[in-house]
Amino acid sequence: MRIKDLPIEERPRERVKKIGIQNISNEELLAIIIKTGTKDKSVKEIACEVLKKIKSVNNLSNITINTFSDIKGLGDVKTIEIMASIELGKRIFLEKNNEIDITYNSPDIIYENNKYLFQGKKQEYFYCLYLDNKNKLIERKLLFMGTINRSIVHPREIFKEAYLTSASKIICMHNHPSGDIRPSIEDDYLTNSLIKIGKIQGINITDHIIIGDDSYYSYYDNQRDLFI
Q: Left (φ > 0), alpha (ψ -120 to 50) or beta: where does 112 sit?
């Protein structure tokens, strides 16, 4: 059934007006973003195909421009519009976190407020949190994406951003897609190098946190002597 063939009160946009956007289904939200269907499929049918393909709405955060290439009616333009909507939502969430004025002074706080960045990721993502001298967040930046086995991280890029943001401290975070939070030899080498460079530069690395499946490893908690 095409959207225009539905009773007016059952159309997604009309339902938003009637009951509020927070009360409509995931299918209806997607249908509003996608806007139109094809000659053979309604926009609601396309939205259902999208949800069936990704299995969980949480997986929308990981889609690429090619994710829905096999779904007729979802070309590059509509896929980019979905991606843009998701990215905007992420940025709103980040701004809300900043408004709370969080003090990043413990690994638990760091993990709880940033773990969503790594959910469902199939390769390594390396972020840095740039802090002022009161441990308040200045900027959160994705610096590197690697393969499923490793990230190629350049210290110069990490510290360049610190100078650009006038940061006093840096917290590094990356994920292990395997879910195993134990540091690798490469992780140890990188952490030691960054701490030494930070001491020379006067911009301290205060922690390096490895994210796994619902858990984390903090170098500061487990190898505190490195930071002295």
A: alpha
C-alpha dihedral, 58 to 62 to 67 to 72, nearest 10°: 40
Average pLDDT over residues 19-24: 82
Most confident among 25-39, 46-60, 111-125, 208-222 (mean pLDDT): 208-222
Q: Does residue 59 sit in the same domain as residue 126?
A: no
Q: By the 8 A CB rule, do 26 and 87 touch?
A: no
CATH of the domain at 200: 3.40.140.10
Asked whether 124 and 145 are in contact (CB, 8 A), the reply is yes
Last residue of some domain: 50, 77, 96? Answer: 96
Task: Count CB neighbours of 25 within 10 A.
Answer: 13
CA nearest neighbour of 29 among 13, 10, 45, 18: 13
* pTM of the full structure: 0.64
- Same domain assignment for residues 71 and 109: no
Domain that holds residue 107: 102-227
As a whole number of angstroms, the distance between CA 109 and CA 190 comes to: 23
Mean pLDDT of the chain: 88
Of the candidates 35, 64, 96, which is a domain's last residue?
A: 96
